């Protein structure tokens, strides 16, 4: 076995426990220093502000600070509103996001009984962001609307109980059957590590 193949084999022996934290599998005796010991994918974010908008240009936005997380949601609601396999959520502090152009809003009750809002361009129908009634600090920019999406790497997956069967999630990735009980704390932590790895 080549050195690189042996290294990859050792990396795959790292598993995350139910709290989403990385731990070394007891079967390996090979010591690998962080960050190699955890298969963290580096993320190199473009310069701020991040910019994006709808298809027709009536709605534009700027994100002035580093987003708190990026993850994919495989729930059936996201599959419907994207008319695709999953939603891409870029969690941001609302105080750092500036939107220009009027949006229309739809709302729905989530499975957990909280009201969620979706804001979209009334001209072209593109969904720009999601908000939550009971948590004003929670804003998810729909990341497919960014002008540059090439740098995005998901820090986790939620609602994989309803994911499409052809979407394959790596064993080393953070994944939750439904909404994470920790309110995406582990995904945020993972994202932080990915950004740090990209800076290094
Ligand atoms: Zn538009
Ligand atoms: Zn969803």
Q: Which terms would index this structure?
A:
16% helix; single chain; 26% strand; alpha+beta; binds zinc ion; 200 residues
Summarize this structure briefly.
The protein contains three helices and twelve strands. The chain is α+β, with helices and mostly antiparallel strands. The chain folds into two domains: 1-39, no CATH class; 50-199, glutathione-dependent formaldehyde- activating enzyme (gfa).
Q: What is the CATH domain class of the largest domain?
A: Alpha Beta
The CATH architecture name of the largest domain reads: Alpha-Beta Complex
* Secondary-structure element string: HEEEEEHEEEEEEEH
Give the tally of β-strands.
12
Query: Which outline best applies?
Result: globular
The ligands bound in this entry are: zinc ion
**Structural class by helix and strand composition:** alpha+beta
Main sheet summary: 7 strands, mixed
Order of adjacent strands in the largest pleated sheet: 8-9-10-11-6-5-12
User: CATH homologous superfamily of the largest domain, by name?
Assistant: glutathione-dependent formaldehyde- activating enzyme (gfa)
Segments where pLDDT lies below 50 for 5+ residues? 4-37
User: How many domain units?
Assistant: 2
What is the CA-based Rg, rounded?
A: 18 Å
Please tally the helical runs, counting DSSP H or I stretches of 4 or more residues.
3
Characterize the structure shown:
The two termini are 30 Å apart. The strands form three sheets. The protein has a seven-stranded mixed beta sheet with strand order 8-9-10-11-6-5-12. It has a three-stranded antiparallel beta sheet with strand order 3-4-7, with no helix packed on it. Strands 1-2 form a two-stranded antiparallel sheet. The longest helix has 15 residues, at 185-199. Helices cover 16% and strands 26% of the residues. It has 200 residues and is α+β, with helices and mostly antiparallel strands. The radius of gyration is 18 Å and the shape is globular. One zinc ion is lined by residues 73, 75, 77-78, 87, 159.
């Amino acid at each position: 076995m080549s050195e690189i193949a042996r290294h990859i084999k050792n990396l795959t022996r790292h598993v995350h426990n139910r709290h989403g934290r990385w731990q070394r599998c007891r079967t390996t005796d090979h010591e690998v220093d962080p960050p190699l010991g955890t298969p963290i994918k580096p993320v190199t974010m473009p310069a701020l502000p991040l910019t994006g908008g709808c298809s027709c240009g009536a709605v534009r936005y700027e994100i002035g600070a580093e987003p708190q997380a990026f993850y994919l949601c495989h729930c059936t609601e996201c599959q419907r509103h994207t008319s695709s396999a999953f939603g891409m959520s870029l969690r941001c502090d609302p105080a750092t996001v500036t939107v220009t152009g009027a949006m229309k809003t739809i709302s729905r009750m989530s499975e957990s009984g909280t009201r969620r809002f979706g804001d979209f361009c009334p001209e072209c129908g593109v969904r720009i962001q999601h908000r939550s009634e009971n948590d004003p600090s929670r804003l998810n920019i729909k990341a497919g609307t960014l002008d540059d999406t090439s740098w995005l790497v998901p820090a986790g997956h939620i609602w994989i109980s309803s994911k499409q069967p052809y979407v394959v999630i790596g064993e080393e990735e953070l994944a939750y059957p439904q909404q994470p009980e920790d309110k995406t704390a582990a995904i945020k932590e993972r994202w932080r590590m990915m950004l740090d790895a990209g800076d290094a």
